[in-house]
Amino acid sequence: MKKVKKRAAVPDGADGWDSYAAFYDWENAQTVGRTDVAFWQGLARRTRGRVLELGAGTGRLSLPLARIVGKRLVGIDRSAPMLARAVAKRRRVPAAKRPELLRGDIRDLPFPDASFSLVIAPYGMLQSLTTERALMGVLKEAARVLKPGGVLGADLVPDLPIWDEYHRETRLRGRGTRGARVTLVESVRQDRRRGVTIFDQEFVETLGTKKSSKRFALAFRTVPVPAMVKRMEKAGFDVEHMLGDYRGGAWDPRAEVWLLLARRRQAPC
Fold it and tell me: If 0-12 CB within 10 Å is exposed, 13-18 middle and 19+ buried, where does residue 152 land?
């Protein structure tokens, strides 16, 4: 009897982030940097009520946003090591403006209904939800905690599934925060049928004659923008803006970023 080959399980998008915490700020300073900060600050500035950031991580956005909206900002993240870095950096913000930073699961938000006016999922946050159940769960939770008429902002990394696969390429080099030389050696694997992209990462640190490395994998699931719009509508939103850059340019499939701004319906769907 011919054996049926079992299909590999979809990787959990939450895996790997604890290990990534020590290198997240170093890598992102060389890639996205602060290119998106002003966009989210502007959106928060126009919001009168409380603001929730899903996947606050190391505070890359939380702290600049807190300087605009102060204690009205709440950040939540599942990774304790990522969040610990955000908490440590929070001391740089004046005490009167320090945001609330919580550890928690964005699929089961620990907040009452209708308690926020703006929820943001920046820099591919929704792509870390590698199953349909997880994605819809988060969208429905965002709708639940938003006030009617509140806004959900989502920022997606464009079309990861069309990236070429490669194996152990040196992608970045530079000086780390502790003076060590840091090298990122990366591989990309694709499951295009599922829209899942897996980054196998090795960060090598060299300080004098000492060398150490840390390996882990990060998985992302990309849903095309039209399909994401339908999912948002199903969760109780009306998508009002589809943007292709942080300056408000129109979206198209080749845009440098995929930004969606959706408004929570006045009545439940």
Answer: buried
